[in-house]
Amino acid sequence: MKSISALLLISLYFSVNIIAQTFIKNADFPGDARRDVISFTIGDRIYTGGGMNQTKFLKDLWEYNTTSNKWTKKNDLPSTIAIGTSVVANGICYIGLGGDGTKSLKDWWQYDEQNDNWIKKADFPGRPGFDASCVSWKNNIYAIGVSETDNNSRAEVIHNEVWQYCPATNIWSLIDKFPGKPRHSGIAVISENNLIYGFGQNESTKEQYSDMYNYDLENHSLKNIASIPSTPCQPVGTANYAGVYDNKIIMLSTDCNADVHEDYNNLYTYNISSDQWTIYKLANKIPWRLFGLSSTIANNGFTGLGYDYISDIWYRDNWKINLEQLLMSYESKIPEMGNIKVNTSNQSILVELPKDLSLDSNIMLNTLDGKKLKDVSLGDGTEVDLSYLPNNLYVWTILNKGSVIKSGSIYKYK
Fold first, then answer.
1. Do 361 and 353 contact (CB within 8 A), yes or no?
2. Which of 16, 54, 182, 305 could lock onto 292 through a cystine, CB 3.0 to 4.6 A?
3. Are 321 and 252 a contacting pair, CB within 8 Å?
4. Of 334, 364, 380, which marks where a domain is finished?
5. Which DSSP symbol is given to 34?
6. Global pTM?
7. How far is it, in rounded angstroms, from Cα 207 to Cα 59?
8. Partners of 93 in the β-ladder
9. Cα–Cα distances in Å, from 299 out to 63, 117, 321, 404?
10. pLDDT, averaged in runs of 10, over the chain (414 residues)
11. CA 359 from centre of chain
12. How many CB atoms lie within 10 A of CB 222?
């Protein structure tokens, strides 16, 4: 029987042409190589700049026209800024927070695209901070996970507060708090009226997180969803590219703290409807890095710049990813992955695997905080009993030859 690794090698052999059309190297960024950039998208144009190079914080801003594949220098950002946040609401960009090399910031600015200048808006009313996750929904902006450095102890302090900024009134409001451990560098995306947020890390405690949450912005309700699957040495932390396409979150260049370097080049997809993750090994053909730009326009993702802290490489490259081709090349070329069926009920998990995968696979059941409850070898079909467990949310993970290939969550209730 073929292992998932063998199937993947066959898949890669037959999909070379598709992959060549999937990852397209565009014109390099003309400024310095850098990390922790500001980046935002208006129409078919991506703006990026700021951040830091090996020696200093930066304030230059550049426009990339995705149609002409050309870069244009714009007026500078209002100050040097790195690890800031940027977001577009109703076609207008706002940036702020971050650090300028000497202090944390609470400034908030609106970009006047027509005149290429910046308009000062109401300061962020919380503590000055950096590395917040920021999204827009129904013309309002939401900022989560602001991190600050204590001026006395120099320790990092992270806040799980959810702030809303209303551009129409220029007013900030504290609306909620997320549960779980405080973090920065979290992943935040919008799907319909849901804010999906999680991952992240804490520099002070050297912890990285893999838990995920779905926050209903319409009804202000919150629920846990499936954590990102663990590699054998995981947690994950963050990703350089995260976008939504076809009701799926797609992540590349994850920071998984792995012992096996290849784990950094996996493709992670999360099906929002089924609450399940799938991992495709070695599917990222872009050199790994973090802290670069990440943008999505229609069915194309864009990523580049950033820093590979493992190999100490600074990047100024610029890539386009055809998300439709990316999913097609792996979902269609490795149908065995799509044929993994996991049906959950209040009392059990029923797993159905293709024969090519059943011999060397197992399913693990864990608590949300990572405690292992069960590890069951899988045949053509296996039922995992949950009847003895207390009511709670649990995470299941399917592995083939030690590599995680599928994961999801199950809520056991009365």
1. yes
2. 305
3. yes
4. 334
5. -
6. 0.83
7. 30
8. 88
9. 20, 30, 8, 27
10. 45 51 94 96 96 96 97 97 93 93 91 96 89 89 79 68 93 86 83 84 80 85 80 66 91 76 81 86 88 93 94 96 86 67 81 78 81 82 83 83 79 70
11. 32
12. 16
70 forms beta bridges with: 65
Q: Could you give the CA distance from residue 277 to residue 202 in angstroms, rounded to a whole number? A: 24
Cβ within 8 Å of residue 117, ≥6 positions away: 75, 111
| 183 within 8 A of 163, measured Cβ to Cβ | no
Give residue 111's identity as a one-letter amino acid code. Answer: Y
User: Helix, strand, or coil here: 220?
Assistant: coil
CATH number reported for the structural domain that contains residue 407 in this entry = 2.60.40.10
Here the tokens at position 32 are 């310095």
Do 373 and 251 belong together in one domain? no
Measured in degrees and rounded to the nearest 5, phi and psi for residue 391 equal: -65, 125
The DSSP call for residue 22 is H
Q: Which of 334, 369, 396 marks a domain boundary?
A: 334
- Give the whole-angstrom CA distance, residue 331 versus residue 292: 27
348 and 239 together in one domain: no
89: exposed, middle or buried (Cβ count in 10 Å: 0-12, 13-18, 19+) = buried
Whole-angstrom Cα distance, residue 298 to residue 247? 13
**58 alpha-carbon distance from chain centroid:** 25
